[in-house]
Design brief:
Layout (H helix, E strand, L loop, with lengths): L3 H11 L4 H8 L3 H9 L8 H14 L4 H11 L29 H28 L4 E5 L4 E3 L3 E8 L4 E7 L4 E5 L5 E7 L3 E10 L5 E10 L12 E5 L5 E3 L3 E7 L3 E6 L2 E2 L7 E6 L4 E11 L4 E11 L3 E7 L4 E7 L2 E2 L5 E3 L4 E6 L1 E6 L5 E5 L2 E3 L9 E6 L2
Helix pairs in contact: 1-3, 4-5
């Protein structure tokens, strides 16, 4: 029959759990877990503590706790449990008499006065905070005074949920009467006049108090003749698409008049045949792409794609940058064929599963994107590391 330590070690290794991870999960020091697995009982504390460690560790490993405790006592030579300390036989010489509190007028009157004064001050403070504090109003766009490149200006912000919000532009005739949403958000698109524009946003709360924020925006209408808008076709992603466990590929093509292509305000190269593509590793949730094509004469066309990114597994993208590293990938307990070798600088790999385990011989050069979240490096230069990624 296997010894106690052999059973513990075999079950831990069967679950692919390291001693360091087991110590962190059970909050038992690693040296005590190691002593239990090696049968090194002299290195353990007293039998009472050791039995407690053994019960917690065996429960953690899904083993029969009572059988292992009996086996532990047999391996220690049948030592009986340590006796519990005796209870003290001390008794008081006489009962303790508790005197009840008697409310007399000399005590009751000051207590009532203090309670009345405290209530009055609390009421005054409530009135002050309720009626003196202005309603919250935060203008997100435009975040500061500035210069606009277009006559259309997006105004958006956050305030008290369900309240009336007005947006006014001077000079001009634009006036918007809005109500903030359940999350307090509001927004509108206003028209600017050439020159200086004064944008005023005002909110009114339930008690009638108002708060306002203003911005000075300069708009200079362009006098340069603008050529025709270029052609822009988006092949991927489809509008409203839901992408599961994959990177987002934005691709399409433009005509030869396009001199510059932007995706979310970042320039993207266009091939000689007019095609383009760019890949994005994004976290779960709604995502938006704004693709803009521009010509040298000022012609512009813009397309928007709103999508949803979903992860049902652990998706681990590995990029080897700045050197070489040995790497082994294990997905759902099975070593991935082709890994367990030296990866050269510039190589990439992607692993998907319920559990992905990466072992690398040079942690600094193994850069990881896990479900759209960037991990700059798995460790230090020359450090041997092991990381486990699980489906969220």
């Amino acid at each position: 029959m296997p010894s106690l330590g052999e059973q513990l070690r075999a079950q831990r290794e069967r679950k692919t759990i390291t001693l360091e991870q087991a110590a962190a999960d059970t909050r038992i020091r690693e040296k005590f877990l190691k002593a239990l697995e090696e049968g090194d009982y002299p290195s353990l504390p007293g039998a009472v503590y050791t039995r407690g460690f053994l019960r917690n560790y065996s429960d953690y490993l899904d083993l029969e706790t009572d059988e292992l405790v009996v086996l532990y006592q047999q391996e220690r030579g049948g030592a009986p449990p340590e006796p519990a300390p005796k209870r003290s036989s001390f008794k008081p010489y006489r009962p303790v008499v508790h005197q009840s509190l008697i409310f007399r007028p000399v005590i009751l009157v000051p207590v009532l006065i203090i309670a009345f004064v405290g209530s009055f001050l609390g009421y005054i403070y409530y009135q002050f905070t309720t009626f003196a504090t202005l309603p919250k109003l935060e203008l997100l766009d435009p975040s500061a005074d500035g210069v606009a490149a277009s006559s259309d200006l997006i105004v958006r912000g956050v305030t008290v949920p369900g309240r009336r919000v007005t947006v006014t532009v001077f000079p001009g005739s634009d006036f918007f009467d809005l109500h903030s949403g359940d999350d307090g958000a509001f927004g509108a698109t206003v028209s600017l006049s050439p020159g200086s524009n004064h944008v005023v946003v005002e909110v009114t709360d339930a008690s009638g108090k108002t708060n306002h924020v203003s911005r000075n925006i300069q708009y200079q209408a362009s006098t340069t003749a603008i050529g025709p808008a270029p052609q822009l076709v988006i092949d991927q992603p489809a509008a409203g698409a839901s992408l599961t466990n994959v990177a987002v590929l934005v691709s399409g093509h433009v005509d030869r008049s396009v001199s510059r292509l932007l995706i979310n305000s970042i320039a993207v190269p266009v091939n000689s045949d007019g095609t383009f593509q760019s890949r994005y590793f994004l976290p779960a949730g709604p995502q938006s792409f704004r693709i803009t094509a521009q010509t040298s004469s000022g012609g512009t066309v813009e397309e928007t794609r709103n999508i949803v990114v979903v992860y049902t597994a652990a998706v681990v993208n590995v990029f080897v940058r700045g050197g070489d590293t040995w790497m082994l990938a294990t997905v759902d307990g099975v070593d991935v064929p082709g890994t367990g070798r030296v990866y050269k600088d510039g190589e990439t790999a992607v692993f998907t599963g319920r559990e992905v385990r990466i072992r690398a011989g040079n942690g600094a050069v193994a850069q990881v994107i896990y479900n759209g979240q960037l991990i700059a490096g798995l460790g230090r230069q020359g450090e041997v590391v092991e990381r486990v990624f699980v489906a969220q």
